[in-house]
Amino acid sequence: MTHDIHHTVTNFGTDLPGEVGLSAVYLAQIHQPVSLLYLAAVLLHAMAKSQEYKRALQALSVGLEMGQQARKPAGSKCSHCSLNYDSPNT
Q1: Which residues are CB-contacts of 63 (< 8 A; sequence separation ≥ 6)?
Q2: Tell me: the pLDDT tens digits for 3-49?
């Protein structure tokens, strides 16, 4: 439900490189193994198209940096789950 909002907030598009960038933000903030598996699968798929792969790697780098530097938003569930808006910030 909030995935589309995250695209807008992070300025990552909905193309393959944009999905990689946003997934990198998730990985950096949420630390869920599924994010890493998704990124690996998408990057393997993108390798067949060198320009798209290059853009995806750039988005990965930007997304990881963005996720590491982002502050925990109000309403996040826990200190290491920065994109989870289920409960009040403590």
Answers
A1: 10, 12, 20, 21, 22, 23, 24, 25, 27, 28
A2: 889 899 999 999 999 999 999 998 998 887 888 999 999 999 999 99
pTM recorded for the entire structure: 0.76
Task: Name the one residue in this structure whose structure tokens are 């198209």.
Answer: 49
Cα(first)–Cα(last) distance of the chain, in Å?
23
Q: How far apart are CA 62 and CA 56, in angstroms?
A: 10
CA distance 3 to 17: 15
| 16 vs 8: CA distance, rounded Å | 15
The dihedral over CA atoms of 51, 52, 53, 58, expressed in degrees to the nearest 10, equals 90
Helix (H) or strand (E) holding 49: none
Domain boundaries, the chain: 3-69
